Amino acid sequence: CKRILRAKRRIKEDIERIFHLYTPQTTNEKSGEDETDFNLSNIIKESIEKLIEKGECHYIEFKATLEYDLKTNIRNKDLNKECLKSIAAFLNTDCGVLLIGVKDDGTIFGIEEDLKYVQNKNTDGFELKLRSLICDHLDPEPLGKIKVEFSKIENLAVCRIDIVPVSLDQIIHLDNEVYIRDGNNKRKLTGRKLTD
Questions:
Q1: Consecutive H or E run containing 179
Q2: Distances in Å between the alpha carbon of 21 and those of 36, 41, 57, 90, 159?
Q3: pTM of this prediction exceeds 0.85
């Protein structure tokens, strides 16, 4: 377990170092201060429109749906694992925002198709479904680390999930698997990556 914690710390440090190397420094014209860290630490305060404009990155992930399969136009319960992987990766790495109802290219799809399969067919039922999935599949349960909100964008409902990372001495498992954020991607840790 200590090896896993050391590996987690090392991965976080490496990702931060690499991210800062390749992140252009921006300066506030009025104050002359570096805004890079300010923007990263406050990403969860940005509007959904601003997040979509920024696009997917280390701190932002888009998912078109929770369980509705765009290829077959039917419900596919296995798809919810993709959202859970993203949530687990953010919890294990850095803060982040997951937007459900937004395609990878930033197109608004909405969660209306998913709402057909939840209790009461509304956003409250969607949140209950999402929190139930989190409770059933993430261990330990990330209490107080996930905030869920809904907004209408272009007349379509979008689910925004703000995620705060767990402490360095914790590791969140998704069905006995460990995921981290690596740039604009999530990565499953296996073998030596878990113990080095």
A1: strand 178-182
A2: 11, 17, 15, 21, 32
A3: no
